[in-house]
Amino acid sequence: MRTVQTFWSAGKSLLTDSFGWNLPEYHLMSWALSCVTLRRYADEVVLYTDMEGKKVLVEQLGLPYTNVVVYESITCPAKHWAYPKIVTYSLQKEPFLHVDGDVYLAKPLSLAICDAPLIAQNKEIGTGYYRRMVDFFLSNNVVLTDWLRSALQELSLNSYNMGVFGGKDIGFIRQYCEESFHLLRDNHLLDLNHKGIQVSNNIVFEQILFAAFARQYKREITTVIDKAIHDNGYKFEDFCNLSQFEQRGYFHIIGGHKRNQHVCDLLEKTLLCYAPDFYFHIKSLFPFRHERFNINRNHSARKMSVQFCMAQYQGFISDLNEHWNDIPKEELLELEHQSALFNSFMNATPQKRLSYAIKKHPYCEIFEIPKLWHPKAVDLLKTKFSLKNNKEHFDVAFIPILSNNGIREVPINDLSYNILLSLSCVDSFAELLVTLNSCFTEEILQNAGLVYQLILREIEHLLFNGVISASVGTSSINKNIRKCQKRAKKKN
Q1: Contacts of 353 (CB under 8 A, 6+ apart)
Q2: DSSP letters of 113-145?
Q3: Do the beta carbons of residue 210 and residue 90 sit within 8 Å?
Q4: pLDDT tens digits for range 188-234
Q5: What is the pTM of this model?
Q6: Are residues 47 and 65 in contact, defined by beta-carbon separation less than 8 angstroms?
Q7: Backbone angles phi, psi at 277, to 5 degrees
Q8: How far is 309 from 301, CA to CA, in rounded Å?
Q9: Helix (H) and strand (E) counts in the chain
Q10: For 378-414, what is the HEC assignment?
Q11: pLDDT tens per residue across span 93-147
């Protein structure tokens, strides 16, 4: 059976954007391990990608794909990352298996699965997590077929996880793709300027639509995982424990697990074990993080002086100031106005907070304090920020502002760091709460109230300092912003 994969960059760089992982290098390691394990059992593994994917995954890393198909132009919002996958599904002319880049096959799939007309990873049972996303989607007066509207209005939403997808019934799969394309076009979900793209709709036009379409035409789906799983029930032990690589046949690093450093460490060790050449090649692409891979290094990390550390920090600030020099004052005024509304979120009821959209400041940059920094340099920064906990690790977030020296430095702990990372793939506070579960131990998760308060404390810190913003609706905010901009223009 033909095996295919899809990588779409959405205009981002594989070497600087983490794509939901803790670091870009873990994202590349995931693609490497996925491709290498697929090639164990498949003679043909084809990558459908854009020029960025071809350049890095194929030309620089040399991943062993048997063929590469380049998408010259795919236009859709970055949030709708499932659309390029559906394009790939639609182009297949023979039985196929599509495997996501965060799925690893330690053992081949059974013949019963590979011979099936329709294949998916597992059936999903929707909880409040999917319900909130679907309710927002329905609130936009969307154009739907009767059978899909009925499915979206059910109390328990049915869908299929498509970490693995495909089968022999090519005709039905093409019909499903056409239904998805119609849904996207009819509701302007490929339009970069349409209000309906404010949140991710991937589960609707890929997963739920497939489940509803198969039910409408009475088609059976063969799944890799036999049991149905709640949409927020993908546990580390079941899908991400790579320490059992040879004992288990199937792994899928889903959602928030990508930001679990223990999972990233396991991925790194697994790739080193099974594909050391690719492991070292990926490390060499990030010499600024790995001193011994930097053939032009002038400083030994073990001898970094306090002066050198602080110069590194000040150099980072100088680069930011130069980079931000041309940001229009009106845009900064708009962003600062948004941050001034933080109290509405903090004063809202716990239930109402769930519907708030949480956004990271679009110019936010993070200075990650290197582990090999001199301890006294770290202490100098702690003193600067009046940090009381001398043992807690911290980094520094930066945003441009209108006043003072034009830049704000905000110390952030590991939880705040993970919140900022998570905001690249979630929108609402409700989604954020679910995603951040992977940042806590099972023991702490037993105390839901404590977890909520810890997250809320960091959200308040980030909101107050303007690193993130929170809003329920945008119309009134934009109206006030326009008024401020007009007043600013008059003064100028």
Answers
A1: 345, 429
A2: HHTSSSEEEEEEE--HHHHHHHHHHHTT-----
A3: no
A4: 888 877 765 666 788 999 999 999 999 999 999 999 999 999 988 89
A5: 0.64
A6: yes
A7: -65, -45
A8: 10
A9: 22, 15
A10: HHHHHHHCCCCCCCCCCEEEEEECCCCCCEEEEEECH
A11: 999 999 999 999 999 999 999 999 999 999 999 887 788 888 888 888 889 999 9
CB atoms within 10 A of CB 172: 16
Instruction: Tell me the pLDDT tens digit for each residue of 453-471.
Output: 999 999 999 999 999 999 8
Phi, psi angle pair for 254, to nearest 5°: -90, 140
What are the tokens at 102? Answer: 């965060």
Nearest to 205 by CA among 224, 182, 228, 221: 182
| CA distances, 249 to each of 126, 191, 238, 244, 246 (Å) | 26, 40, 11, 9, 7
Q: Are 160 and 204 in contact (CB under 8 A)?
A: no
Give phi and psi for 175, each to the nearest 5. Answer: -65, -40
Return the number of other C-beta atoms located less than 10 Å from residue 309's C-beta: 21
| Tokens matching residue 366 | 């993070």
Do 44 and 67 touch, CB atoms closer than 8 A? yes
Site of tokens 């952030």: 412
Query: How many angstroms separate the CA atoms of 208 and 125, rounded?
Result: 10
Q: Is the dihedral of CA 7, 9, 13, 16 positive or negative?
A: negative
Contact between 255 and 231 under an 8 Å Cβ cutoff? The reply is no
Contact 315, 45 (CB under 8 A): no
Amino acid symbol at 72: E
| Contact criterion met (CB below 8 Å) for 391 and 431 | no
Count of CB atoms within 10 A of residue 378's CB? 18
